[in-house]
Each structure stands twice: as C-alpha cells, then as structure tokens.
Amino acid sequence: MEPQPITQEQGMRKKQIIYLWAAAFLFTAACTHKVQVEPIHITVDINIRVDKALDDFFSDLDATEPAAEPLTAPKKR
C-alpha cells in the first residue's frame, strides 16, 4: 500500500490547525499573571503614660473592693 498524496484542501486544513494551536498558545502565554504577596507592617502606638495614670487611678478601687468568691455549681445529693 502506497501512502495517498495530501490534497491541497488537507494541506490548508493542517495549516489552519497549526495556526489555531499557535494562537491559542500565544493567547494563554500572554494572559498569565504573577501575584506577589508582600508582608504588611503595622505599627501600634501605645500611650504608656495614660495607661499608668489609669492604673494608679483604679488601683485604690481594686484595693478596697473585697475579692469575689468563685462561683461554683451546687452539689448534687
């Protein structure tokens, strides 16, 4: 059996398929995105003087208030 010769229509069809695959490859290669995640630095400012003043203000209230007894569940009989 001899191979059959390729007709002009079959040759055009092969070229169309090759061009279609090349276009699809170029399209997908152009649509790739690189995502870069960078760390976020957050600075928290704490006003220590105000914190100390509030501790001093409420310390006398804490000293005069009796300690509360812990709550416990009633015993089962």
From TrEMBL:
This is YnbE-like lipoprotein. It comes from Desulfosudis oleivorans (strain DSM 6200 / JCM 39069 / Hxd3).
